[in-house]
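We treat protein structure as text, and this decision shapes the records that our systems exchange. We quote a single record here, exactly as it is kept in our systems:
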Amino acid sequence: MASDESNENEDPIDRILDAFVYAPIGLLLDGKDLIPDLARRGRAQAANARVLGTFALSTADSRVQTAVADVERQLGVLFSALSGSTQGAGTGGGAEQSTKSTSTASPEAGKPKTSRAKTPAKKAAKSVAKRSDGMSAKAKPSSPKPPSVGSLAIDGYDTLAASQIVSRLEGLTPAERKAVARFESANRRRKTILDKIGRLDAPGGV
């Protein structure tokens, strides 16, 4: 206790001097006697550490080998169980499929085949429907092909603006205006031109 108290009361500067000045000096003076003893103790510690390390490695190696063997054994048991279950499922599935096929085929085989003869009423209805479809197709008139731009009564029609064409419509005959309307409806469909032709060709049109 007295030594602990003296160490606590020692000046920090004295501690620094002891560690970095006086202790190295003492080591230099007594090194010849201390170094062999320290080297001997170091060799003993290194030998002990080497023996302990070798023993730890051998123990760990044996434990690892035992664990690997256990895992391999468990995997073998698991694989054998899985292979047995898949084989059983395959044979059972085939038997179930065969029973299903026979069960589904047996009702159809027992039933007598009946010929599906068409009644006269159904035949008559179909023939009437075909005739009506043919008549409606014949009754539909084919849409006339629009005239070409070269056949119009206005020269350079495709190069003129709508206002220029509207100003020339009054000088055309109704048939010529009709051709212009058909061409315009099939192409650019300009509302100003079509409205003007409609007003001109209407009864009392302007």
